[in-house]
Amino acid sequence: IEDLLTPETCVCRTDDGHLVEGLREASLETVVPRGSSDRVMVVLGEHAGKVGRILERQPERGRALVQLGRDAAAPVLPLPYDCICHYLGGGDDD
């Protein structure tokens, strides 16, 4: 997602660099990274906007165990895949 046009629509960039405008949430799919310790951002719920890392995937339950923040004592939460997305931003945002 590149930009939000309205609360219901956004602009997305495809893998080949093309911009697609006016997409609705129902047209989008959450990308959950496959690598170990990949960073994710919480996009829904009370922890929205926080960055963490995946400790464990639970595909049979459609969720992942995510540790928020960088501190080893940071909370670990079971979050549905729809509440998280792959995070590629800078390291100071957690």
UniProtKB/TrEMBL annotation:
It is found in: Nucleus. Keywords: mRNA processing, mRNA splicing, Nucleus. The keyword Nucleus applies. GO terms for cellular component: spliceosomal complex. InterPro entries: Rib_uL2_dom2 (IPR014722), Spp2-like (IPR045166). Pfam families: GPKOW_C. One of its GO terms (biological process) is mRNA splicing, via spliceosome. Gene3D superfamilies: 2.30.30.30. Signal peptide: none annotated. The keyword Nucleus applies. Belongs to the MOS2 family. PANTHER family: G PATCH AND KOW-CONTAINING, G-PATCH DOMAIN AND KOW MOTIFS-CONTAINING PROTEIN. RNA-binding protein involved in pre-mRNA splicing. This is G-patch domain and KOW motifs-containing protein. It comes from Cettia cetti. The gene is Gpkow.
